[in-house]
Amino acid sequence: MKKDVHPNYRQVVFVDVSNDYRFLTRSTVKTKDTTKWEDGQEYPLYKLDTSSESHPFYTGTQKMVDTAGRVEKFRQKFGTKRGTRSQTKE
């Protein structure tokens, strides 16, 4: 293999800064900081704004939008009815 072509693939600790959730995985991300992991070894540290522990979709706190209700409100406001189409003569 050619030298200096492949990125440095190594163990990296990712930390979610919103709730201090940490996990260790392999990555090629470039880091400046390091931290000690549970096994006592020092690993590169990468700080995340959002992870699966804090993202609304994965935590179940995501709000569902009622699009059918919005469409009905629009139709009531502007007087359009369901199933009606404008017909054009050719």
Beta strand %: 25-35%
Major sheet characteristics = 4 strands, mixed
Order of helices and strands: EEEEHH
Q: What is the number of strand segments?
A: 4
Distance between the termini: 67 Å
| Average pLDDT for all residues | 79
Number of helices: 2
Placed side by side, the strands forming the largest sheet appear as 2-1-4-3
Q: How much helix, percentage-wise, in residues?
A: 10-25%
List the SSEs and their pairings:
Layout lengths: L9 E7 L4 E7 L5 E4 L5 E7 L7 H4 L7 H12 L12
Parallel strand pairs: 1-4
Antiparallel strand pairs: 1-2, 3-4
Description:
- With 90 residues, the protein is α+β, with helices and mostly antiparallel strands.
- The protein has one domain.
- It is 18% helix and 28% strand.
- It contains two helices and four strands, in the order E-E-E-E-H-H.
- A four-stranded mixed beta sheet has the order 2-1-4-3, with no helix packed on it.
- The mean pLDDT is 79.
